[in-house]
Design a protein that fits this description.
Elements: H1 3-21, E1 30-34, H2 40-48, E2 53-56, H3 59-72, E3 77-80, H4 89-95, E4 98-102, H5 105-118, E5 123-128, H6 141-153, E6 159-164, H7 172-186, E7 190-192, H8 199-204, E8 209-212, H9 214-217
Parallel strand pairs: 1-2, 1-8, 2-3, 3-4, 4-5, 5-6, 6-7
Length: about 220
């Protein structure tokens, strides 16, 4: 069996077990297979094994490989999980089905403009910098609920959920709990949290999607 396909099977099995251990419904959690830096020849066997939801960090990289793959697999759902620059909003709206990294007013305004212009509305998440790390994208937790409100009321954006990436050297549990609390306060239902090293913990804290790359595709 292809190594990535074997990794996919193992991650799927662990998600099922984590859902069961947390007392959650089966299929409560969507697996976003993070395919950044990997070429189409590595991604294709994973698609053929049934995976349909993928995450990419960079607009330009995704443009180079996904249009061709989508010709063969039109039901692919593509998530942008890396920082979005305002000058890439046009391309992001055209390419992605979900944008998980809305984190500032300028991006919200640009997305609103492109959604109106293109008539295409990706589902949107606000990224929260739960650890207040200066080098990391995301809005401060204290500002997150108000920002979701402004996205809706000022920019007319439908915010579906929140996303976070906890600090690498900290217990992720409190960060996942904070994101879940902020989501309730903001009135959003989706939680994108958990990666290869902590997705089972994220599922216990209510993740509705987990972003898993290296546990499927291997090291980069």
């Amino acid at each position: 069996m292809n190594e990535a396909v074997a990794g996919l099977a193992q991650v799927r099995a662990r998600i099922v077990a984590a859902e069961r251990d947390a007392g959650r419904d089966s299929d409560a959690v969507v697996l976003v297979a993070v395919s950044k830096t990997f070429g189409a020849e590595i991604i294709r066997p994973v698609i053929e094994a049934g995976q349909r939801v993928f995450g990419e960090n960079r607009v330009q990289e995704a443009q180079g490989k996904w249009p061709a793959l989508r010709q063969d697999f039109p039901d692919i759902e593509l998530h942008l999980i890396g920082p979005l620059q305002s000058n890439k909003a046009k391309e992001a709206v055209a390419l992605f089905d979900v944008i998980e990294t809305v984190d500032r007013e300028k991006i919200a305004a640009e997305l609103a403009k492109e959604i109106a212009r293109q008539g295409r509305a990706p589902r949107l998440y606000v990224q929260v910098n739960t650890g207040s790390e200066p080098q990391k994208a995301g809005i401060e937790p204290r500002d997150a609920v108000a920002f979701v409100g402004r996205c809706r009321q000022v920019h007319g954006l439908d915010i579906e959920g929140l996303m976070c990436i906890p600090p690498a050297d900290e217990n992720p549990g409190p960060h996942f709990a904070l994101l879940e609390k902020l989501a309730r306060q903001a009135g959003v239902r989706k939680l994108s949290m958990g990666m290869s090293g902590d997705y089972e913990t994220a599922i216990a804290f209510g993740a509705t999607s987990v972003r898993v790359g290296s546990a499927i595709f291997g090291g980069r």
